[in-house]
Design a protein that fits this description.
This protein is an alpha+beta fold and 264 residues long. Helix content is 16%, strand content 38%. The chain is built from 4 helices and 14 strands. A hairpin with a 2-residue loop joins β3 (140-148) and β4. Residues 19-37 have a biased composition (Low complexity).
Length: 264
C-alpha cells in the first residue's frame, strides 16, 4: 500500500486577508476636519460715534446687565433687614420738613408727568427749575405749575434751556408739576421698552433728603448718576409698576434713570 504524505495545512484566510492595521484603524484614525476648522470671525458692525448712542449703550448695559446683579444683591441684603424709613412714607402728599419727594409717571408715548412735593425746613421765596444737561438729548418741560403754600407762583409755563425761576411769598410747602418730553428713548428691538435718561428736572429747592418714585406699566430698574459720573444701580422695586430710591445729602442732586415698559 502506497503511503501518501499529508498535504500541508492551508493557510487560514484570516491571516491573509485581515491586515494587522484594521483592528487599530479606529483609534489611530485622523480626526475629522470639523473640530480643527477655524471658524470665520463674526461680522462686527461699525461703531456708532454718536454721543447719544454711546451714552445710551453704556446705560443700557448698566441697567440691563449690572442691574440683574444689583437687584439680586438688594433682595439678599434686604431679606433680613428692617425697611428703610422711606419705605413707610406715603408716596403722594407732603413729606416732613426738610424733605422732598418727586413722583414720575410714564405716559403713553413716553412723556413724563412729574410732581414734586417740597417741604422746606425754613421759608423760601424763590425756586429754580433747569433742564438736565444730556449729550444729544433734547428734553423739554411744559405745562409747569408751581404753588407755594397753596398760592400760585409767578413764573413761565415752559422751562427753556437757560432755566426758569419762580417767585412767591415766603412759603415752606412748594408743589411743582410739569410734563417732560424727549427724555425717554424707545427701544428699536424690544416692543414698548424705553430708557428714561432722566426722570425729573433739576430743582434748586430740593431738600437734604429726597425720595424719587418712578411709575409705569412696568418698571424694570433704576440707576442714579451724580454730575460728571456714570450711573450705578439704585433703589428697589415696590411693585412691578413702581420703583423707589431715597437720596440723602449730596446724592439728592443725582439724576435718576429708569428702564420701563411704556404704556401704549
Amino acid at each position: 500500500m502506497e503511503v501518501v504524505a499529508p498535504s500541508p495545512a492551508p493557510v487560514p484566510r484570516a491571516v491573509v486577508v485581515a491586515p494587522a492595521a484594521e483592528p487599530t484603524a479606529e483609534p489611530t484614525a485622523e480626526p475629522t476636519a470639523e473640530p480643527t476648522a477655524v471658524p470665520a470671525p463674526p461680522a462686527v458692525a461699525p461703531p456708532d460715534s454718536s454721543p447719544r448712542r454711546q451714552t445710551l449703550a453704556f446705560v443700557v448695559l448698566a441697567l440691563v446687565g449690572v442691574f440683574v446683579g444689583g437687584v439680586v444683591a438688594w433682595q439678599v441684603v434686604e431679606t433680613d433687614s428692617s425697611p428703610s424709613p422711606a419705605a413707610s412714607l406715603p408716596i403722594d402728599g407732603w413729606p416732613v420738613a426738610g424733605e422732598s419727594r418727586a413722583v414720575t409717571e410714564v405716559l403713553a408715548g413716553g412723556e413724563l408727568q412729574v410732581t414734586h412735593w417740597i417741604h422746606a425746613d425754613a421759608p423760601i421765596d424763590e425756586m429754580g427749575l433747569a433742564l438736565p444737561d444730556l449729550d444729544g438729548t433734547d428734553v423739554s418741560a411744559t405745562r409747569v405749575q408751581v404753588t407755594a403754600d397753596g398760592r400760585a407762583a409767578s413764573g413761565p409755563a415752559t422751562v427753556t434751556p437757560s432755566g426758569a425761576t419762580y417767585t412767591f411769598a415766603d412759603a415752606t410747602r412748594i408743589q411743582v408739576r410739569y410734563v417732560m418730553s424727549g427724555a425717554v428713548e424707545l427701544s428699536s428691538s424690544a416692543d414698548g421698552r424705553g430708557l428714561a435718561t432722566t426722570t425729573s428736572l433739576e430743582v434748586t429747592a430740593a431738600q437734604a433728603r429726597d425720595v424719587r418714585v418712578v411709575r409705569s406699566q412696568e418698571v424694570l430698574s433704576l440707576a442714579c448718576a451724580q454730575p460728571q459720573e456714570q450711573p450705578v444701580p439704585c433703589g428697589h422695586a415696590e411693585a412691578d409698576d413702581q420703583w423707589r430710591v431715597e437720596l440723602i445729602g449730596d446724592d439728592a442732586r443725582s439724576r435718576v434713570l429708569a428702564v420701563v415698559t411704556v404704556p401704549s
